[in-house]
Amino acid sequence: MASNNALASSYNNNIRPLLDAVDRLRNLKVTEEGIQLPTIVVVGDQSSGKSSVLESLAGISLPRGQGICTRVPLIMRLQGDSNTTKPSMHLEYGGKIVPTSEDEITAAINTATVEIAGAGKGISGKPITLVVKKKSVPDLTLVDLPGITHVPVEGQPSDIYEQISKIIKEYIAPQESIILNVLSATVEFPTCESIRMSRQVDRLGERTLAVVTKSDKAPEGLLEKVTVDDVRIGLGYVCVRNRIGDETYKQARVEEERLFTSHPLLLRIDKSMIGIPVLADRLTQIQVSIIAKCLPDIVKKINEKLNRSMSELNSMPQNLSTIADALKAVIRIIKLVRESLEKLLIRG
Ligand SMILES: Nc1nc2c(ncn2[C@@H]2O[C@H](COP(=O)(O)OP(=O)(O)OP(=O)(O)O)[C@@H](O)[C@H]2O)c(=O)[nH]1
């Protein structure tokens, strides 16, 4: 027990501030300034089960269904808080903060999606951020992207494939992104469009982790698929069984465990490759290691930007003093961010 407490307090003192710093930088939209942040990006073919995986990790309902559901990037920030008795959650989009609840979350995301991408089936690259603070969630930030489809469904623009590909590539191309490739056990992995796309930016699969959904629907041959690895997934596979129908999240985890421990074909898959809790642990470890790897470079890039802005500012004519004052204020903010990052680096 004592060592668990020590682990928890070391986590709160060392890891939490790192995650918070990265989330704050994301809020400051530093990516628009060409500074890439360590991000876990969820990709998959349409209806592969991306939203269901996020639901399972967060223990909340998200818009789910057959056909296109996710029409804008959804940045999901999960924050585990052992002191919270009641979960709290809100959406951030278009400069607004909208408090919501577990019962209303699906409707709130749908409303935000319509506001951003229209009422039809069109898509948009502007993200919605969903912040979830809950007792038993892993500390993770993940970005869910629209599912890839070649054939537009009724009401979708004819260039839907090009539009979705563009958004996905933007998110998965940076070396700082980890690709969580969601593959349905019901399909042959080499035929997945999401595999083709992630291989374009990560040829050897070094920053790709696969999560295989619908293990319950296609257990035959699953062990072979995840051990032969003919699509090159460098960070490995985790097979899961998501919530089905009206099951609660607790029931879904019980059913998942029962499936993998009782099905004659599935119980042969190694324990380190099955279940949502294993996936949550893997993602948390990966997230910490990419943040630690990327942080020195982020600080360096912020420093370079700062120095450039300072010299531009110093060379400005006197009569532009109002603009100069505004810029100075911006630089003060960047300095504060830099200082807090540097403190973290020294501590880490
Ligand atoms: N039986 C079973 N069904 C699943 C599983 N995971 C997802 N599903 C179902 O598959 C369908 C598609 O799941 P979604 O999570 O909406 O898929 P998605 O990839 O987010 O869909 P888009 O965003 O529209 O591309 C839903 O009906 C889910 O209930 C699973 O592990 N087992």
UniProtKB/TrEMBL annotation:
GO terms for cellular component: cytoplasm; membrane; microtubule. Keywords: GTP-binding, Nucleotide-binding. It holds the Pfam family Dynamin_N. GO terms for molecular function: GTP binding; GTPase activity; microtubule binding. InterPro entries: Dynamin, Dynamin_GTPase, Dynamin_N, Dynamin_stalk, G_DYNAMIN_dom, P-loop_NTPase. SMART domains: DYNc (SM00053). Residues 34-296 form the Dynamin-type G domain. SUPFAM superfamilies: P-loop containing nucleoside triphosphate hydrolases. It comes from the Eukaryota. PROSITE patterns: G_DYNAMIN_2. This is Dynamin-type G domain-containing protein.
